[in-house]
Amino acid sequence: MNARDTDWDGVRLHVVTGKGGTGKTTVAAALALALASGGRKTLLVEVEGRQGIAQLFDQPPLGYEERRIAVARDGGDVYGLAIDAEQALYEYLSMFYKLGQAARGLKRIGAIEFATTIAPGLRDVLLTGKTCEAVRRKQGGRFVYDAVVMDAPPTGRITRFLNVNQAVAGLARFGPIHHQAEAVMSVIRSPATAVHCVTVLEEMPVQETVDAVAELRAADLPVGGVIVNMVRPDPLGDQLTRAAAGQIAREEVSEALHAVGLKVDETVVTALLDEAQEHAQRIQMEREERAAIAELGLPTYELPLLTDGVDLGGLYRLAEALRDQGAA
To answer: Which sequence ranges are marked TM in the entry (predicted)?
Structure first.
């Protein structure tokens, strides 16, 4: 598949959110790799200060500078950035209020801590602002990055996080703060942005995804796709219904095992039947969750469960799966 032949042509900011435990950071990293393939250049941004990106790519902790962290298929590059709100505030004050090094003097009198405490939304303004600056940045008339992927906050607060600049623009009705907030929202609300929700096939994460999509739509924020992570294979096939109902006969299992040269006792047969029933019931539940996701009417992608854990090789496998399905 051509690197530009995707479901998200024209999208330059991919915001990845998801309930805790769904593998949101892993999916964001895989998406950045997928988008960089074919000689492109992507930036993977972390805003929660957990250094999850550095761990996934087996890199030293990321700082407040953009650093190459991986090479994608066919020579593309992935850069990483951990946005620190304090550093972003220094940059903001220097850029808009011409304070220069004097901005750092504010730290000595506690002004930085005071500002982020008295106005907690300020932190989100700084994080989204720095990300959107990277999206807009050009060099020699061309965008520096072909795409920016944000490992964003969880679904429970993603709408508030992305919409914070709307509130700021309303409070500060003129001046550099107002103009900066409007510039950020012009990126976030544009067709160049897509907010992707990561979930697993379990009731609570799927319901949180459904709720998040409804909130994003209500706030007129650009909803992207749903990425279903850690999908298990279904080895039972058309035997699923029988297994879930406990209707597979013991004799069938015993005969099948003996046919391949395995001698087992009744305890083993019982354990196998119990495991098959539990697995079948889970698969049936997952099918119900898939139906709930399908009702959202969004492009949906599935990533396999990596039974050996997520290492760098696993990230490349997930990136390839996203490309194969048209997500990148």
So the answer is: none
